[in-house]
Amino acid sequence: MEARDLRRMTVEEYIALDRGSDERWEYVNGEAFAMAGGSPQHVAVVGNVYFALRTALRGKPCVAFGEGLKISTPRTRAYHYPDAIVVCGALRHDERDDRAIVNPTLIVEVLSPSTADYDRGGKLVHYRSIDSFTDYLLVSIEDRTVEHHHRIEPGKWLVTTGVREGVVDLESVGATLVVAELWTDLDRLR
């Protein structure tokens, strides 16, 4: 997904805009961004990630959600729509926006050329401000790799880059992802 159509506004104005729009809007530093649709490859990989998480978590205490669920980072006053989220335990909602949750455990972003730098940088800063957040997956379609950020203790993260094969162990949510399954049907979409 790529950001487009920037608007400056208050949090309350943003929430009203996002609720009243057919588009999804993200909000950072007083500015709202309309999120453009993704390429067929992006949409396919997002679906593959969600399916893999949903399947791996069936019957377990954590639940996977697709790209339509919004995350609030109250400490940084930002709102984002990640490509996939896993929540362990009961959903906790934002005080201002009951359509946004504040307690993701795992967040997944499928990288797009226009948003990769923000997903690796500024967005990660927002996400790391969430106490329940322990794992971040950045999935690169171009390189067919997975980058895994795992919190090992407050303020310390283990980052594994360039995972091309095998599995990604998501111990904090009780799941394992087979990397090859993330690319299912991708070659058919060229």
Automatic annotation (TrEMBL):
It holds the Pfam family Uma2. This is Putative restriction endonuclease domain-containing protein. The lineage of its organism: Bacteria, Pseudomonadati, Myxococcota, Polyangia, Polyangiales. CDD domains: DUF820-like. Residues 11-161 form the Putative restriction endonuclease domain. InterPro entries: Nuclease_put_TT1808, Restrct_endonuc-II-like, Uma2.
